Amino acid sequence: MKPLLIDGAWQRTSHGVENVNPSDTxxxxxxxxxxxxxxxxTAIAAALAAAPEWGLSAPLLRHDIxxxxxxxxxxxxxxxxxxxxxxxxxxxxxxxxxxxxxxQIFHFFAAEALRLSGETGASLRPGVTxxxxxxxxxxxxIIAPWNFPLAIPAWKIAPAxxxxxxxxxxxxxxxxxxxxxxxxxxxRAGVPDGVFNLLNGPGAVVGQAxxxxxxxxxxxxxxxxxxxxxxxxxxLPMMRRLQLEMGGKNPLVVLxxxxxxxxxxxxLDGAFFSTGQRCTASSRLIVxxxxxxxxxxxxxxxxxxxxxxxxxxxxxxxxxxxxxAQLQQHLAFIAQARAQGGHLRTGGEVLRRExxxxxxxxxxxxxxxxxxxxxxxxxxxxVASVIRVRDYEHALAVANDxxxxxxxxxxxxxxxxxxxxxxxxxxxxxxxxxxxAGVDHHVPFGGTKSSSHGPREQGGQAxxxxxxxxxxxxxx
Length: 476
Description:
CATH architecture of the largest domain: 3-Layer(aba) Sandwich
Distance between the termini: 60 Å
Structural class: alpha/beta
Shape: globular
Helix content: 25-40%
Strand content: 15-25%
Number of domains: 2
Number of strands: 22
């Protein structure tokens, strides 16, 4: 049984849960110790005790720890990527790419630890100097999702440690192996006792205990809108700092003047790669009527040609969905879309392979209305819907008609329409002739409306969440 990491020590518990491979349900990756309320409270206490010394630690110490962690992840990227794919279901080349990205994130924030920032200026009062500096927030709780089990924890944990906060980390229940591997790497990289703590366990127990504890100064959460709302409500009485990423229903607008090859590839990548299990996935394909039929025909051919199989097989273009519960949820969305008048152009069927797994053929649903459930609710799987529109203005209105605002894309050869869309798309990130999914680690990540709350993640902007400002006045 793989243990928890609390206060620098590996701790086993009386209860463990098996981690099952979604590509082969007979393959048990390992058993992982489960934390309860007592273990959660102990970990928070350890993080609190370690916070004063770590908060005053030398930047070079933090740089060296993060650098060593990044170096090991990069050196082991194929091993870690395949482990990730084995437990989450994305194909191996995507898993290896994610491990590489996690390493790059640690390297980026290792460098950030040495980029000391602050301001010194003159006061309005003669002879007085003003200094503005940044300090750590304190104890940071991190609750991560299952779809990017290395990259998302990396872009939360690395900046938290970079800016001298202590961490209590609860990964998603479906992906404990990647979290354990990351914790093991950080432990051996030299993170001091109590500075980083790993708690595998159910959200209803561990997550709730974290929310209920006023010793958590800040909480970074990625997950569903419903859970994010509960996180916010529980944190408000404590005036806790929050960073919430809560999904999207991202539009990809395809105009009549688009390069058809580019548009089809953007839709295929954005909607179906990583099995569509991305908050930035292009789940709504909004196509003007002049190109609609040709686009649908070409995209149907491309989607139908995707090879769905075991995540670790080189021939697979798409792996299984992550769990039986997700599979049944996707099937329910597809059935509802058909009942509401949508046409299932291809896919949407449970597949049988040599190994038992949660295989679903990628689904493309056409002839949909913007108000259908399939176009208003995040499916979070290999399911995309097509909406026919008149022109650019109609497309823009439909794209913005959603409570979400994470990412939006457009395929066009018109500079006028591309420029207008960048300004008017109600989303935190905009892509022009690119898939909506796929972002760089050195720039801010986040959305508007109900998709995000609080400061952006990633890049230099991460300091806005993980630090607090202090203003000091000095008269010699």
